[in-house]
From TrEMBL:
Gene3D superfamilies noted in UniProt: Glutaredoxin
Residues where Cu cation binds: 93, 97, 182
Keywords: Copper, Disulfide bond, Metal-binding
Family: Belongs to the SCO1/2 family.
Thioredoxin domain ranges (all copies): 55-221
Organism, as annotated: Piscinibacter sakaiensis (Ideonella sakaiensis)
Biased composition (Pro residues): 1-15
Region Disordered, residue ranges: 1-20
PANTHER family: ELECTRON TRANSPORT PROTIN SCO1/SENC FAMILY MEMBER, LINALOOL DEHYDRATASE_ISOMERASE DOMAIN-CONTAINING PROTEIN
Matching Pfam families: SCO1-SenC
CDD domains according to UniProt: SCO
UniProt-recorded Gene Ontology molecular function terms: metal ion binding
UniProt key word Coiled coil: no
Entry protein name: Cytochrome oxidase biogenesis protein Sco1/SenC/PrrC
Length: 223
């Protein structure tokens, strides 16, 4: 399968407009050719229409093996049976990360009882500052059911490469005041654990609600 286009450099990850002031948050997959994408895996399900970018059958974002804030080894298989939304970010992010997680919590509530079958997964790209204690408090501020994952620098890099996610440290005025450039989109997995959508930052709660509802209905029909 042809990988997603890059932002013109050698990085194999999506790109997006710059945000304030220096920190770029890459929204990604903006020019991905969608025609025939799902057909690259004939065994994969296909939906009639999504608001997000349909990446059904993608040959990336298939593995995620990191520890949660309690130190337990977790993988994508742990979340099968739920529609899972995976987002890479960091707790000191001033805008995109909290707004993305807040929106997902809003969508989960909007889905009512079906919202219990939606799983949010936050992957830290800043494990040096995102300690287990920090991650627990951060998740609790959005939804107690959301899971935060972290790893060593090497594990974090491997996870990002698997998802074609870009991140980089941007130095600040002091050693500890740095920010992180990172891909600002979410990956959505169906209840069978297959990656289905890339949701660009700014798509909106209404569109995400519709897409998650469609995947939940698909799971009900297949049961």
């Amino acid at each position: 399968m042809t990988p997603p286009p890059t932002d013109g450099g050698p990085r194999p990850q999506p790109a997006a407009p710059a945000s304030r002031p220096r920190r770029r948050l890459l929204g990604g997959l903006a020019v991905l050719p969608l025609v025939g994408l799902a057909a690259c895996d004939r065994g994969s399900p296909r939906a009639a229409s999504f608001k997000g970018v349909d990446i059904t059958g993608a040959d990336y974002a298939r593995r995620l093996e990191l520890s949660d804030a309690d130190g337990r080894a977790r993988s994508l298989a742990d979340f099968k049976g739920k529609v899972t939304v995976v987002f890479f970010g960091y707790t000191q992010c001033p805008d995109v990360c909290p707004s993305t997680l807040g929106e997902l919590a809003q969508v989960k509530r909007a889905l009512g009882a079906d919202g219990e079958r939606v799983q949010g997964v936050f992957v830290s790209v800043d494990p040096a500052r995102d300690t287990p204690e920090v991650l627990k408090a951060y998740m609790a501020s959005f939804d107690p059911g959301f899971v935060a994952l972290r790893g060593t620098p090497e594990q974090t890099l491997a996870a990002a490469k698997e998802f074609k996610v870009y991140y980089a440290k941007v130095p600040g005025k002091t050693e500890s005041s740095y920010t992180m450039d990172h891909t600002a989109g979410s990956f959505v997995f169906d209840a069978s654990g297959r990656v289905r959508l890339f949701v660009r930052y700014g798509t909106g709660a209404e569109a995400l609600t519709a897409d998650l509802r469609a995947l939940l209905d698909e799971a009900k029909a297949a049961a």
